[in-house]
Amino acid sequence: MLIKSIRCQVEEQKKDLFSKGQTQWEPLCYEIGFLGQLGGWCEKDPNKAWIIAFWENPSAYQQFMKEVHDRIFLDSGQGKTYSSIDVVFFELEHQPQQMVSLVEKADVLKAEVLDSTLRLSGGEEGIIIANESSINGHPVPSLSDTIQVEEAWRVVPIFPGGK
């Protein structure tokens, strides 16, 4: 399983536009290999958005990037709403059972990256631990924050496990 961590710095006056753009990623729910996505605003920096996306494997993700990503991104207008973006990938050998519950139900997500390991905790929804992916072309920074999940940003697959 591939986990994509996306962190965007958003100016206060552009937060509503960013949030509206984030809702435009709903078409992800139809993509083969897409397992879910959630995100929200960080507690430590309320102008930092953190989105976590789950994919069956790197091939499914790369296919999405090649065929669909740019269209959704351009249609969303989101590129004009943030001042910086940091994307990091993590991998697990299998899909943990708690991933579905985390994507569908978590209201608050505690996220931590330490020593190239991602730890996601959704309270009662469980914990996911993943290691840095070889896809990354740069070192993974250490960080820790609590994400207040925005319901409108949550994307749950229509066909779990693909079409």
Q: In words, what does this structure look like?
A:
With 163 residues, the protein is an alpha+beta fold. The chain has helices at 15-22, 58-76, 98-105; strands at 2-9, 34-42, 48-55, 84-91, 108-114, 117-121, 127-132, 143-149. A hairpin with a 2-residue loop joins strand 5 (108-114) and strand 6. The longest helix has 19 residues, at 58-76. It is globular, with a radius of gyration of 15 Å.
Condensed summary:
The protein is α+β, with helices and mostly antiparallel strands and 163 residues long. It is built from 3 helices and 8 strands. The longest helix is centred in the middle third of the chain and has 19 residues, at 58-76.
Proportion of helical residues: 10-25%
* DSSP strand content: 35-45%
Spatial ordering of strands, largest sheet: 1-3-2-8-5-6-7-4
Secondary-structure-derived class:
alpha+beta
Order of helices and strands: EHEEHEHEEEE
Largest sheet: 8 strands, antiparallel, barrel
Give me the Rg, rounded.
15 Å
Mean pLDDT: 92
Distance between the termini: 17 Å
Our count of helices gives: 3
Count of beta strands: 8
Q: Unreliable stretches, pLDDT < 50, 5 or more residues?
A: none
Fold blueprint:
Layout: E1 2-9, H1 15-22, E2 34-42, E3 48-55, H2 58-76, E4 84-91, H3 98-105, E5 108-114, E6 117-121, E7 127-132, E8 143-149
Antiparallel strand pairs: 1-3, 1-4, 2-3, 2-8, 4-7, 5-6, 5-8, 6-7
Give the tags.
8 strands; globular; 163 residues; alpha+beta; eight-stranded antiparallel β-barrel
